[in-house]
Amino acid sequence: MPEARILVLGYGNPGRRDDGLGPAAAEAIEAFSLRGVRTSANYQLMIEDAYDAAESDVVIFIDAAKAGAEPYSISAVQPATNVSAFASHVVAPELVLGLSGSVFGHIPRASLVGIRGYAFDFEEGLSARAQANLASALVHIRNVMIGRRMVVELAKGRALR
Amino acid sequence: MIETRKIVIDPVTRVEGHGKVTIRLNEDGSVAESRFHVVEFRGFERFIRGRPYWEVAMIVQRLCGICPVSHHLCAAKAMDKIAGVDRLTVTADKVRRIMHYGQVLQSNAVHFFHLASPDLLFGFEGPVDKRNFVGTVENYPEVAKWAIFVRKFGQSVIKAVGGKKIHPSLAIPGGVNKNLSTAERDILRSEVDRVVAWCADALELCKRLIHEDAARLEGFGTFESSYVSLVRADGAMDLYDGGLRAIAPSGAKIFDGVTPEMYDDVIGDEVRPWSYMKFPYLRSLGKERGWFRVGPLAQVNCCDFIDTPLAENARLDFKRPGGGKPIHATLYQHWARVICMLHAAEKVKELLYDDDLQGEELMVSGERRPEGAAWIEAPRGMLYHRYRVDDDDLVTNAKLAVATTNNNEAINRSVNKVAIDYLTGREITDVLLNNIEVAVRAYDPCLSCATHALGDMPLLVTLEDQDGATLATRARA
């Protein structure tokens, strides 16, 4: 089976403490230097990410979560069918997938990893608890989502968890 | 007693940041006056005081998320002078230039494709839920593809030399912190020809849309004005550096070859009580007649030629109807914008085949000076930065004059012209609202930059009588 092309999109504002969990995760995964894995860290998702998504078999969106499961949650992402609420400063994962299909003709499998954060004030640096959650998430992303289970799940047509 | 009504349009949508429009009517329903208010105060010039001068180029780019590179490079050019450096190494100069052209490319792509072209593609009165980029995706997928890819390429250029697409790190006082590697260069080389071709396609599309509705678009929000832009010593368009040139509506030069150190000698600022944004004017013409326009229209009108072939042909075509004299049609800003976008793509390609960008000499040092001033042609027009630094290397004073500020009077006049032409009766129609926004968008989608603003603004429309009493309110989500 050909090796899957994986895109990791980590987004958030590092200037607001744990909101930087997404970019921090993307940068850490970049440092793993895993074959077939591309990463992007940015303040927010952008329409242009649809191009990179269309060039991928799998997309892993990573964002900070203000509430919910600890240390992280994973959910499947489906492409948006109604994009009328578009706003350039609010681009959701679903819109990125929708555009990758409608403009570039390919919709990859996609998951959203929400890493639990606690501090979101105007300051740089992750909180200690967020750092611990990030470490846990990275283990799962590297070993499970990208590693052992990826090819199997792709073959079954399921989103990665 | 004369009865007046004030119509307020707030906020101006599909403009990054917020603005507020007030139209005051006479008793007979005619437009008495229109004002484009900027009511946000950001304070960059104030809170940057006390920071070490070498931090400034990184801090000020936080002014804007669409064109941070312009502020980064303009501040760096000013800091070069404070560091005692008047001439960078060849590599440092060209690496900064390729970043700047990448910026112009991606920023003009955003402005044209995402924010302005939906009005041209779907008509000013087109359905609101379609008159946006998503509508472009659904109805003009090939155009959407150009939009996404051209902007993405510009961002890739920025990231290749600056490490990040937004708020990159490259320029430091006296030079740059990296060159363009051959690996990065080769990736960009593999895509640049397609980018140039799609920019040329975008230009043909823009021209077609404008020509199809020329009778209306040529007069929309239009008036004659002076123009100000940087040009190279030989008169060529130079969006990165050059002398400041001002031309009259006829095309005659008002001044030429002005350096940043002469800024206060040639340009003054007027303050009006109803807006935080200043009103710059050419001192030689005075406050009443000295207002001017900057931006793509000025960039194309002021130069004698463009030194890239496709853009130069486009410039000649653009100016042909006016017999070579300045073009004044406000909405032709978009046509000029696409010409500049094409020029930026050609310059990026030119630099990608220039081995100087792989040079190893990146820095120059000199004798510290207490003050440095610089300018650059940002995508929206001339941007000026000036800083004063004390003996402890801390900033004591800063002046930032951004493009939208330079266009302040012109925006007000375009809004007033549109209000006069499109207000019928005493009704605030959707047509009037969107036409006013189209006029503002011709200049700038980036109000948060010019207002130096911080935080969110309440979204409220207020109708007031001549005594300031509220007649009606209207809120937008």
Report on this model:
The complex is a heterodimer of chains A (161) and B (477). Chain A has 161 residues and is of the alpha/beta class. Chain A has helices at 21-32, 49-54, 93-104, 128-148, 150-156, and strands spanning 6-11, 37-42, 58-65, 72-76, 109-116. Chain A is 36% helix and 20% strand. In chain A, helix 1 (21-32) crosses helix 4 (128-148). The longest helix of chain A is centred in the C-terminal third of the chain and has 21 residues, at 128-148. The radius of gyration of chain A is 15 Å and the shape is globular. By secondary structure, chain B is an alpha+beta fold. Chain B has helices spanning 44-47, 56-59, 68-82, 90-122, 133-139, 141-162, 182-212, 214-217, 263-266, 286-289, 296-302, 309-319, 332-352, 403-406, 408-422, 430-441, 447-450; strands spanning 6-9, 20-25, 31-37, 171-172, 175-176, 226-231, 243-247, 253-258, 267-270, 279-282, 292-293, 371-378, 381-389, 395-401, 461-464, 470-474. In chain B, strand 2 and strand 3 form a beta hairpin. In chain B, helix 6 packs antiparallel against helix 7. The radius of gyration of chain B is 22 Å and the shape is globular. Chain A binds chain B through residues 41-43, 47-48, 50-52, 83-84, 86, 88-89, 99, 102-104, and chain B through 16, 65, 110, 114, 129, 132-134, 137-138, 141, 144-145, 147-149, 151-152, 155, 164-166.
